Amino acid sequence: MTITVESPTTTTAFADEWARWHDAREDNLRDPLGWLSLAGLHWLTDSPQRFDGLPGTWWVTEERVFITAQPADRLDVDGERIGGVQIVTPVEGAPGVHVLNEEKVYEVIRRSGQFAVRVHDPAAPTLSGFTGVTAYPADPRWVVTGHFTAFDQPRTVTTGAVVDGLEHHHRAAGTIEFRIGDSRETLLAFGTPEDLRVLFTDATSGVTTYAAARSLAVGAVETDGTVTLDFNRAVNLPCAFTVFATCPVAPTENRLRVAIEAGEQDPKL
Question: Where are the domains of the chain?
Answer without folding.
Answer: 35-128, 133-254
